[in-house]
Amino acid sequence: MTAHTPPTPPFRDPRLPLGERVDDLLSRLTLDEKTAFLHQFAPAVERLGVAAFRTGQEALHGVAWMGPATVFPQAVGIGATWNEDLVRRIGEAVSQEVRAMRARDERVGLNVWSPTVNLLRHPLWGRNEEGYSEDPKLTSAIATAYTRGLRGGHPEYWRTAPVLKHWLAHNNETCRDTSSSSVRPRVLHEYDLRAFRETVEAGAVAGVMPAYNLVNGRPNHVSPYLREQLRTWTDEELLVCSDAGAPSNLVDSEHYFDSHEEATAAALRAGVDSFTDHGTDSSRIVARVRGALEQGLLSEADVDAAVRRQLSVRFRLGEFDGHDEPGAFDTPEHRALALEAAEQAVVLLRNDGVLPLAPDTRVAVVGLLADECKLDWYSGSLLHRSTPLEGLYERFGAQSVSFAEGVDRVRLRTAAGTFLHVLPAPDSPDGTPGAEGALDPALIAGRTDLPPLTTDTAGSELALVDWGEGVLTLRALDGRYLSVAEDGFVRASADQPGGWVVRETFRLEPHGSGHLLRHLGTGRPVRVAADGVKVAAEDADDADGEVFELVVAERGEEAVTRAAAGADVVVVVAGNDPHINGRETEDRTTLRLPEHQERLLRAARAANPRTVLALVSAYPYAVDADGLPAVLWTAHGGQAAGTALARVLAGDVSPAGRLPQTWYADDADLPGLLDYDVIGSRQTYLYFEGTPLFPFGHGLSYASFDYADLAVRAGDGPVSVSFTVTNTGDVTADEVVQLYARAEEPSVPRPRRELLAHRRLTLAPGERAGVCFEVPLSAFAFWDVAHGRWRREPGPYALLVGASSEDVRLSATVVLDGEPAAPRPVRERGLDAAGFDEQSGTEIVDRARTAGDAVTPVAGGPGELLYRACDFGAGVTGVAVAVAGEGTVEIALDGGPASAVLSPQAPTPGPYDYVELGAALTAEGVHDLTVRLRGSLRLAHVGFTG
Questions:
Q1: Cα separation of 183 and 807, whole Å?
Q2: CB 33: neighbour CB atoms within 10 A?
Q3: For residue 624, which of 590, 642, 601, 641 has the smallest C-alpha distance?
C-alpha cells in the first residue's frame, strides 16, 4: 500500500490570498497558543510546523547588538544627507546584513525596530542622535527611503519588516515613563502625527512602537490614536510592538491601572499586538492575558486581532513559503556605501577660504575626539574603524600631521601619600563587552578577569577628561578606561565608556582637604582596601571613601598649544561621547561645549589663528563661531567617519550635508524641554523668530551655485514649481535645493516657512540642471480646530527656493483657491475644551482612560483658553460645562469680565467623574470666547442652551 500524503494546509499554499492564509492558520491555533504569541518571544507550535518568532531587531544605522556589522552614520547624520536615494541604499545594505547574520545566528530577528521618526523638536533631547530632523516632511522622506530599503525590492516578500519608533510626541528622557506631552490638535496633526502618517502611507512599514511617555495624560500604550489614526492610513495589517517594559509601567510607575490584568487588556484592546516585557520570560505576560480573559476584560476575538497582525507580518517575510534570502555581509559595496554616507553627512557651517586644505599643508589635529571612532547605544560592533587622525595620516602623510589629544594627565594621591596604580593587563581575548552579540546588551556584565587597581609610591598617570558637568573618565596609558564591575572593584578594563548603566564615569567632589572620587554608575565613593581599590559598600556613607589629592602633570591645553604652534592649520575635533551626558535615559542640560573642550579650542586659537573646528556630535552645540576660519559638523559617522572627514577637509569631496535641525545660539532661545507646543512656544525653524546660530537646511560648499528661471503654475491640481541651478564654481559638487512656502495672509498662526520639497543634485563645473517640483494642494492646508478637519485657506502663498530655510535665492507668490474661514458653530456643537486657538497656563489631560481630552490648569494655578470667532447665531441664554475635580470656570466674551462663573458644589469623586454645571449667559452673533480656569479642575466641554 502507498502511504497517504496529507493535504497541504491552506496556510501553506502561496497561491491563496494572504488574508485567507492568515485566517486558516489562526483557526488552527488553540487559545493558549495564541496567548503565547502575544509576548515578544513567541514559541514554536511544533504540531503545525510553526517556528518560534521574536519581534524586535535593532537596526537604526546598521545591525545593532548582535556583534560586528557595517556601521553607518548615526540617524541624525543620515538625515543631514538630505538624500533619499542614498538612504534607501543604506536600508537595503542593512536588511541584507540582517538576512546574512540570521543565516548564522537565529537570534537575529527579521522584524526590525527602525527607523525612529520622532521629530527633533528640542536639541537637548538625549536621543537626538536617533531622529532624522526637526521637520516632519524631511523626516518622513528619509524614513520612507530607509523603510523601502529595509523592506527590499521583492514584489511579494519583505526582506525585513520595519517598525517605526516611538509613537508619539516623545522628546524627553527626563521622567520619560511618567511625563505627559501636552499636544494641542494643531500640533498633533500638523507636526507629530505627520511624520508617521506620510511614512506609513508610503507602504513599506510593518508597524509602530509606542513610546514610554504619556500624551495628553494617557500612556501611549493605550493611545486611541492607534485605532483612530494609525490603522486608517493603510489597508495593510500593522504590528504594534510595545517598548521594553512599558506594559508593566502602566501599573508600576504610571499607576494608570490598578492591576496588570486590567492594563494588559487595555493595551491589547487599544492596539498593542506584541508585549516586550520581562526579557525572554513570557510567563508573566501570558498569565496577565489569561487573567484578563478569565475576568472578562478581554475576549478571544481581542487576542485573535493581535495574533492576526503578527501572522500577517510573518507571512510577508516569507516564513511559511520557505522563502529565504542569503543576504550579504561586509561586502566591498557596503564598505563603499558607509564611506559615501559619511562623506555626504558632513556639513560645512562656516568657511572663510581656509578649506579645502592644500596638499602640502602641515596639519595639527587636536581634541578629545581627534583619534576616536565613537559608537552609540544602537550601533553594531566595528568591523572597520577610521578616526579623524587616521584619516588625515592617510590623506596627508604622517610626516605632515601632528596630534595632541588634549587630556589632562593626572595622578591621584591618597591620604597615606601613595598613588593609584594600574597593574599591567595580562594577555587576554578581545575584551569588548557584547562583541559576540546579545539580545539585551543592558545585561552584559563588566570584566572581572583583570586585576583591580592598587596603590604604590609612584602610581600611574591617568588621562582625565571632563565631559561636562563634572562627569569624568579616567584612562590608563595603555588606553584602558577605569571601570567598575559587579564585584565593586575598580579596574582598567574597558575599551570605551558604555553600557546601559555606564561603568566608566566618575566625579571628583570636594571633601575636606581633597576630593572624593565618586563612581556615578553605583553612586558610591572609591575607597582603598587591602585587596584592591573598590567602591564603598552599598550601605556605607561618604566617610568610607578615600580622600584624594589631584596631582596634575600636564593640562590638555599645554599639549594642544605645542602641536598648534608648529602647524599651518589646526583642526580641533570636539564633540560628545554618545554614552555620556545626552543619550537614552539622559537629556542634556545645555547647548554649550563642555568647559574642557572650550579650553582646548581657546588654546588652539591663541596658538594659531588658522584653527578649524570640526564638531563630531549627536546633537547641535552653541559655539562661538566668530573668528573661526571654518566650522564643520558631522554626526558620529560610523566605521568610515575619519576617512570621510579627511577627504572633505582635503577637498577630495565637496561638502553638501545640510542641517536637519536648527542650531540655536543660546540656551535662552530654547523652550522648556517638556513644552511640546511648537506653535505657541515658537519652536523649530517653522516658528522660531530669533536669530539662530545656523538655520535649518544650512550647509556650505566648495562650489557656488546660481539659481534662475523660476516658473510657477497653479490650477486645480498640484502646484508646479520649476527653476534651474548652475554650478558656477570650479569643482564638481552637490547642491541641495529646497522649496519652502509661507501663507501670506493667514487667519491663524502659520509657519514662517515650511519645507515642501528638496532634491540633492550633483553638478560638474558649468553644468546646469532643471528642477521641477509638483506640490499637492494638500501641502498648503492646516488643521482647522474650529471644525476639526484640514482646510486650505484661499489667498496668496509665498514660494521660496534656495539653499537653506534662510538662504532664499528665488521667490514668487501664488494665489490659491480654498475654503474661507468660518466661525465656530458653538450653538449647535459647543466647544471641546482642547480645541482652543490659544492658551496660557494649561495642559491637556485625558478625559477618560480610553479616549477624549480635557484641559486643566498647570499645578492648579490659573489658566486661560481662547476660542476665536464663536458663532452664537440668533442667541443663547445659558452655558453648561462638563467638569471634574474642584475649582472655578469663568466664561467671558471678547476679553471682557466674566459673564458666567461656575463651580462644583463639592469635589467630584475622581478625575473622570464629570458633572455638568449650568449658568445664565446671553450672547448672539460672533464673539471671541475666553475660558478661565482655577483650581484642580478638568474641563472637557462647553455647551450652550437657548
A1: 31
A2: 17
A3: 601
CB 459 within 8 A of CB 419: yes
Quote the crossing angle between the two packed helices 283-294 and 300-316, to the nearest 10°.
140
Residue 85, amino acid: D
Give percent of the chain above pLDDT 90. Answer: 96
* 788 Rama class: left (phi>0) / alpha (psi -120 to 50) / beta: left
Q: Rounded CA gap, 664 and 693, in Å?
A: 5
The predicted structure's pLDDT at residue 436: 60
DSSP letters, 824-886, are: B-HHHH-EETT--SEEESEEEEESSSSS-EEEEEGGG--EEEEEEEEE-TT-EEEEEEEEEES
Question: Hey, what's the cell of 448?
Answer: 572581572
Contact of 833 with 941, CB cutoff 8 Å: yes
Determine if the peptide bond prior to 695 is cis (ω within 30°).
no
Grid cell listed for 453:
587597581
Does 243 qualify as catalytic in the annotation? yes
pLDDT, tens digit (0-9, with 9 covering 90-100), for 84-131: 999 999 999 999 999 999 999 999 999 999 999 999 999 999 999 999
Q: For residue 811, what is its C-alpha cell?
A: 521667490
pLDDT tens digit string along 586-636?
999 999 999 999 999 999 999 999 999 999 999 999 999 998 999 999 999
| pLDDT mean over 784-795 | 97
Q: Count the alpha carbons within 13 Å of 215 in the hemisphere toward its beta carbon.
A: 28
The x, y and z cell numbers of residue 810, run together, are 528665488
pLDDT of residue 428 exceeding 90: no
Options 135, 177, 243, 587, the catalytic residue: 243
Q: Letter for the amino acid at 727?
A: N
pLDDT reported for residue 933 = 98
Of the candidates 623, 579, 582, 619, which has an alpha carbon nearest to the alpha carbon of residue 601?
A: 623
User: Is there a contact between 869 and 928 (Cβ–Cβ < 8 Å)?
Assistant: yes
Largest CA distance in the chain: 97
CA distance 303 to 311: 12
Give the three cell numbers for residue 266. Answer: 487595555
Question: pLDDT at position 7, please?
Answer: 86
CB 431 within 8 A of CB 447: yes
Full-model pTM: 0.97
Convert 146-170 to b/e letters by CB count within 10 Å (16 or more is b): bbbbbbbeeeebbbbbbbbbbbbbb
Mean pLDDT of the chain: 96
Strand pairing report for 611-616 and 569-575: parallel
Buried b (16+ CB within 10 A) or exposed e, 452-464: bbbbeeebbbbbb
Distance CA 330, CA 69 (A): 7
Q: Are 418 and 459 in contact (CB under 8 A)?
A: yes
How many other C-beta atoms are found inside a 10 Å radius of the C-beta of residue 765?
Answer: 13
Stated length of the chain: 946
Q: Give the pLDDT of residue 437.
A: 66
Report the C-alpha gap between 522 and 562 in whole angstroms. Answer: 38
Contact residues for 930 (Cβ-Cβ < 8 A; gap 6+): 864, 865, 866, 867, 891, 892, 893, 895
pLDDT on residue 3: 60
Enumerate residues 6+ apart whose C-beta is below 8 A from 883.
889, 902, 904, 908, 914, 915, 917, 937, 938, 939, 940
pLDDT cut 70: percent of the chain above it? 98
Amino acid letter for position 549: E
Strands 898-902 and 381-382: unpaired
Please list the residues that pair with 726 across neighbouring strands: 706, 768
In the predicted model, is pLDDT for residue 387 greater than 80?
Answer: yes
pLDDT (0 to 100) of residue 441: 73
Contact between 115 and 146 (Cβ < 8 Å): yes
- Residue 429 pLDDT > 70: no
Q: What confidence category does residue 426 fall into, taking pLDDT thresholds of 50, 70 and 90? A: confident
Residues 128 and 114: their CA atoms lie apart, in Å, by 15
Contacts with 782 (C-beta within 8 Å, 6 or more apart), sequence order: 186, 190, 746, 748, 750, 790, 791, 792, 793
The three three-digit cell numbers of residue 567, written as one number: 602647524
